[in-house]
Each structure stands twice: as C-alpha cells, then as structure tokens.
Amino acid sequence: MRQEYTWISRCLVKQSDINGITHRYTIQIACNANDDVDLHRRLRDLAANQDFVIEAIEYSRLIQDHLDKLDYYDHESIQLASQSAQHGYALGQLTATNDTSSGINHDHPSLLNIDEYPVTHKKDPTKPSWQQPWIDPAVKKVIFDHSLNAQLKTYLLIDATSRNAITSTFDLGEYDDLPIQSLYSGALAQELKQQAPYLLDVTLNAQQLSNNEDVPRFHRDFFSKHWGQHTGIFFHSSEPMDKLARHLKKFIKIRNNEGQWFYFRFFDPRTMNHYLQSIQRWPQRIAKWYGAQQGTELIKAILCEDQSGSLLKRYQLIPDHTLNHGGQIELTETEFQFFQDYRWQHNKQLIETELKNDFPLETQQMSHQQFSLWCDEGKHKGYTTPRALYDYCYSALMAQTHNFDLSEIEHYLSEQTTSHLEKSKLLYQSTKDAVERYTSGSTR
Predict the structure, then answer these.
(1) How many helices (H) and strands (E) does the chain have?
(2) Are strands 5-16 and 292-293 parallel, antiparallel or unpaired?
C-alpha cells in the first residue's frame, strides 16, 4: 500500500443557492493522498459530496512545503492538516468572492435574445409637418408591427411621475381613445393618481401602421416629447391588459430576504435595461418576470430605450419549455449590489458629461477611463455625493491641466473639521483660486 501524505489546497469553487444564483468562493482544503493525481481525484469527489463544484485549484502543496513558504504562523492550515490526518480530509471556511462584473450566473447560457435597434428619426424635407413620420420606421416595425402574429399586442407601462415632469401636469386623462389601467388599486389609485404607474394598450392596427394620419395623438406625443426621457417601457403580450396588469403589480413592491419592503421602479427603462442584462442567465427570475409556465409565457418581449434614446433594446425570451415560475420574489443581496453598481456607473457618466460640457477644451483629449479613475479616487477619499465627486474631479482636471500639486490643497483640507460636502466646496474654491494664480503668473 502506497504511503499517503497530507496536502493543503486552495480552491475556487461555485455553489448554487435555493434561488438559483451561482455564488463563488475560495476555500482551503486539507486532504490525504498518495500523489497530486490522486489528490485532484479526491478533491473532485469531495466537492461533489459537498454540493459545490471546483472551478480552479490555485495551489496544492504538501503541508510542510506549504508552511515553509510562509513567513507567518498559519494556524488554520495546521488545524486542517491535523483534522485531515485523522479523518482523511478537512474543509476550511468558504470565503465569498466579490466578482459581480459580468452579471448573475455569468457562465450560464442566456435565456434572452437581446437585440438593439438604432433610432435615427429624420424628417422628410419634401413633406409638410402633418405628413412627417412620427417615429423611426425601423423602430415602428419592431414595436408595433405584429403582422406575423396577429394575436400579439403592444403595451406601454408609463411612470406618471417622470411623465408629469415633462408635461407639467397629469395629462393621461386627455387620451380617452386608449385603454388605460393604473397598477395601483382602490383608494391608493386615487390618492396617488398623479404618481402611479399606468399600463396602456398602444397596439396599432394595419390601417394605423400604413397611414400616419390615422395614428392616435398619444403615439405622436410620446415619440416626439417623451422618447429618450425615461418615462416608460413597452411589452409584447398575447394576453389581455388586465391579466398583464395583475402580473406587473407583483413587482412594484418587493421585499428582501430580511423582510424589508422596497418600491421597485422597474418601469424606468434605465433601471430595466440594467436589471434584465444582470438576470438574463437566472432561470427562476426570468421565468417569474416573463410569466413562463409549461412552455408558454405571458410576456413575449420587453422593449426599452437606452440612456440617450438613440437605441431601442428588445429582450425576447428564448423558447424554453423547462422554465416554470412560482412563489414570491425576494430581492437578494446580489441584486442590490447590481443596483448599487448601476447607480455608481450612472453617477460617473453624469460627472463626465458635465465636466465635458463645462470644460470642452480641457477635456478634449481626456479618456473615459481617466474620468472613471478620478471618480473612484474621489469616492475612496470620502466624496460620495454627485456634487462632491464633481468638485473632486474638477480639481483633478485643473491640477493636471495647469500642472500644479493638488496634494497641497488636500493636505490643507484634511486639517479642516467640516463635512465632506463643505470640504468639497472648499476644494473647488481652493482649486479655482489656484488656477487663477497659475494662469495669471502669480506665485503668491
């Protein structure tokens, strides 16, 4: 019988929870084996018995070789090796990795077909205003043309709060030629009439598709005033409006796994784009959103404009007869992390845009990565609000443009007992004063 040795291995493993989310961990494992081939076989068998999968083995060393490489006392490895000598193996603690960059279950196949359509709405100079196209022809075809499926309807879910900011008043009551239904019920529907989300049946018939003069006024108003303003998202469904409304109501208020309730503004296309991209490989969540059950789905596709309105994105469910929705949805910590990442990326983009608008010459040759780096630096230094981050990035931009040392100003500010917002204002003003001195040639 060949002699067995005790080995220490550090492994990257993955494991799926009851919600179907794949989580990744690192774990230290002590295991008895004859050689490294025997060790790897035993590690795979051990992982299978523990309901996780080994994705990679960072290292495997004999326990003494492992300890010799370290310049500290590795109590955990010694304890695991002792347990392994008695029982054949020992498992350390699972330590979660924080890789959320590629979405939930990023190594699983996507359950959605995601198509993008450029929006290039151009006027025809040969036609009068009343004959001008009210929508980009390609976008009209994607959203409204159901000639291949006569049962399919187009619905629009509107955020009344965002819409009212553009119209300055609640105007949905003016369009009495369209079926409209609030997603709030009872007294709440009346109390929050001007803030509620509303579902509208905006399906167009063949005559309306072919003749611009027959298009309802609402459609013209929406695509001329509200497209690109993040006021709603579209759905394709063969089901009646009341059934779709009941389905969408389930997502307005969602609790987390600790029982806290949150309002989910999924009818903002910016939020929905990010969310669908994140969950496209998560069977349980996709099945719930699309109402997939026994080979059918309540929602065929969800369509959202992008940040600028220059792109239409269609998220269409790939036919999968194994998807079945059930139970209530609870927002997981992974999803909250995605929303936080989205908000952070959104804030960075806003700051970059504002700086480019305010200082076009200074930012002309500046890369997107540079703005992102400044934002990350500012956040690390405690400038967490958009206003404070703008002030920090402005200061970094001016220091680089005019070649002065920003650390001197920061050292002065570190001695001030003020809030971060007040400190950012001081940073902005101090930088502005420094720019004036340097550009005037003064060294005072």
Answers:
(1) 16, 17
(2) unpaired
233-252 pLDDT, tens per residue? 999 999 999 999 999 999 98
On whether both 205 and 85 belong to a single domain, the answer is no
Task: For 210-237, write each residue's pLDDT tens digit.
Answer: 888 889 999 999 998 899 899 999 999 9
Q: Residue 412 carries which DSSP code?
A: H
Give the Cα separation of 269 and 234 in Å (integer).
9
Q: What is the Cα–Cα distance from 267 to 28, expressed in whole angstroms?
A: 44
Q: Examine the pLDDT at 99 and tell me if it is beyond 60.
A: no
Using DSSP, state whether 19 is helix, strand or coil: coil
358 and 300 in one domain?
no
Query: Measured between alpha carbons, how far is 78 from 30 in angstroms, rounded to an integer?
Result: 9
- Regarding whether 290 and 222 lie in a shared domain, the answer is yes
- Whether 107 is covered by a domain: the verdict is no
For residue 265, CA distances in Å to 159, 231, 339 come to: 8, 11, 11
Residues 311 and 346 in one domain: no
Would you state the pLDDT for residue 45? 87
Angstrom CA distances, 104 to 185, 232, 313, 330, stand at: 33, 25, 20, 15
Local structure of residue 224 (DSSP, 8 states): I
Give the chain's domain count: 3
- Give the DSSP letter of residue 110: P
Q: Tell which phi-psi region holds residue 79, choosing left (phi > 0), alpha (psi between -120 and 50) or beta.
A: alpha
Half-sphere exposure of 307 (CA within 13 A, CB side): 9
pLDDT at 444: 43
Residue type, 370: Q
* Residue 389 structural domain: 340-440
Whether 262 is in a domain gets the answer yes
How far, in Å, are 103, 340, 349, 369 from residue 346 at the CA level?
A: 17, 10, 5, 14
User: Between the CA atoms of 129, 130, 135 and 138, what dihedral angle is there, to the nearest 10 degrees?
Assistant: -90
Cα 27 to Cα 95: distance, rounded to the nearest angstrom: 6
The values of phi and psi at residue 69, to 5°, are -80, -15
Tell me the pairing of strands 330-331 and 253-256: parallel
Q: How far apart are the C-alpha atoms of 407 and 44, rounded to whole Å?
A: 52
Nearest Cα to Cα of residue 429 among 392, 385, 384, 404: 392
Residue 258 CB partners (closer than 8 Å, separation 6+)? none
Of the candidates 407, 410, 398, 387, the residue with the CA atom closest to the CA atom of residue 437: 398
